[in-house]
């Protein structure tokens, strides 16, 4: 369970449901509503906490080419996250630029993700089978060793 950061700072306890990459805070229902109500916060990018596997978020949001600029867009032509300056200077002729949150909407349900999940499941099953087979062979070698040692002792 991830806690709401603003609530924690006020000695309250609430479950965090969304993560704001701009504030770098996990937010509860009340603070999510505040984000959409306050004009200055309305353009912030919120993501479901369930999209991450752990309690830490390591989302790189600063453009390495333009100091002080944050990634806001995804250029599908170049498969790159870009800031406003990148968009204006280097990607102005690109036809497939979207805000990051819009571009990310279909990621969790994409067929590519489904294929990768199936491949991983298949690899896990194969690995389990190999480990079981190895254990059987190890047991068999141990039994063979015992038989050989008995024969040597009788000889």
From TrEMBL:
<dbReference type="GO" id="GO:0061630">
    <property type="term" value="F:ubiquitin protein ligase activity"/>
</dbReference>
<dbReference type="GO" id="GO:0005654">
    <property type="term" value="C:nucleoplasm"/>
</dbReference>
<dbReference type="InterPro" id="IPR047153">
    <property type="entry name" value="TRIM45/56/19-like"/>
</dbReference>
<protein>
    <recommendedName>
        <fullName>B box-type domain-containing protein</fullName>
    </recommendedName>
</protein>
